[in-house]
Amino acid sequence: MDSAYELFQAGTSLLDGNDFHAAVVPLTRAAELEPDKTSVREALGRAYFGSQRYREGAEEFRVVAEREPTNDFALFCLGRCLQSLGDHVEARKPLTMAATLRPERKDYREYLERSVRATDAP
To answer: For the segment 46-105, what is each residue's pLDDT rounded down to a tens digit?
Structure first.
């Protein structure tokens, strides 16, 4: 049986190669073995996002953001998943928090502005 660490390493290697669908498999197994490891949950969220499985990605990033409320990347990715699901109202909160935590990140501000425009449009 593979250890959670070995599964995590295999999954992140697949992520690095943009093989998101394949990365879901070892990262899911690693998350089952180590459900409290936010690094595993964040990587699994990235794999889900890359596989266009936004609902599952949002769940993983939400868990990370709840456990690490100052994790700007998890907040940003949660917002991006919600945007991809068409929920711009809900996306605004984590995107605002991410942009506040890292004001130098232009991409964070740009995606926040997209949600603002989408919810303010008539």
So the answer is: 999 999 999 999 999 999 999 999 999 999 999 999 999 999 999 999 999 999 999 999
The per-residue pLDDT for range 48-59, each reduced to its tens digit, is 999 999 999 999
Residue corresponding to tokens 């992520």: 15
SS3 label, residue 49: helix
- What is the C-alpha to C-alpha distance for residues 25 and 3, in angstroms, rounded to an integer? 14
Q: Return the H-helix or E-strand segment holding 52.
A: none
* Separation CA 12–CA 63 (nearest Å): 19
Q: How far is CA 38 from the centre of its chain?
A: 11
CATH 1.25.40.10 given to domain 58-122: yes
Q: Would you list the domain boundaries of the chain?
A: 1-52, 58-122
Q: Is 105 helix (H, G, I), strand (E, B) or coil?
A: coil
52: left (phi over 0), alpha (psi -120 to 50) or beta: left
